[in-house]
Design goal:
By secondary structure, the protein is mainly α. It contains nine helices and no strands.
Length: 183
């Protein structure tokens, strides 16, 4: 069947090299937390996203065919959850403004202490981007992934990644969030 994904429900142990989930998590947890913080710009939300990502991954660990693809697989789950989180947060902020419920909550002390005003201004500009543009930009320029890894993590084509990156760069430049030599 063209276009239909077939999941192999055979446990990893029965297929050969087993996935040691604990070792995978131990090796990737710090990188996942760093990525989540860069995607959602909130420490608590980032920890929640990583936790739910790992819970999802644990439940579906038997479907992973190649243990070497574990880090990319975890990143893909995290990116998917982060994009959904960003969409929900953007909708809530719009509802808050329409209903005049007041401004968004104050940033955490961790965020206030985290960096200079320029970094915070960049973060604000990045948060105004659509979820896919912000995610592609963060994966490329903050995490250093190549286009193929980003396409894999976001489950989109390489050309689509390039379009999202181009649009993100244009919007960030227009908002004066990027200065000097831009990526």
């Amino acid at each position: 069947m063209k276009g239909t994904a077939v999941m192999d429900e055979t446990p990893m142990e029965a297929r050969g090299s087993p996935l040691d989930f604990d070792v995978l998590v131990e090796g990737e947890q710090a990188a996942l937390l760093r990525l989540a913080r860069r995607l959602v710009w909130d420490g608590e939300d980032a920890r929640d996203l990583v936790q739910s990502t790992l819970a999802d991954a644990y439940e579906k660990r038997h479907t992973l065919r190649d243990p070497k693809a574990g880090p990319a697989w975890l990143r893909r789950i995290l990116v998917s959850r982060a994009m959904g989180h960003l969409r929900r947060r953007r909708v809530w902020n719009m509802v808050r403004e329409v209903l005049d419920l007041g401004p968004a909550p104050e940033p955490s002390p961790e965020e206030r202490f985290a960096g200079a005003e320029r970094w915070r201004a960049f973060g604000r500009a990045l948060r105004t981007l659509p979820a896919q543009q912000a995610t592609a930009f963060s994966l490329r320029y903050l995490e250093g992934l190549d286009l193929d890894a980003i396409a894999d993590a976001m489950n989109i084509g390489r050309g689509t990644v390039r379009i999202h990156l181009y649009r993100a760069l244009q919007k960030l430049k227009a908002a004066d969030a990027l200065q000097g030599d831009t990526p």
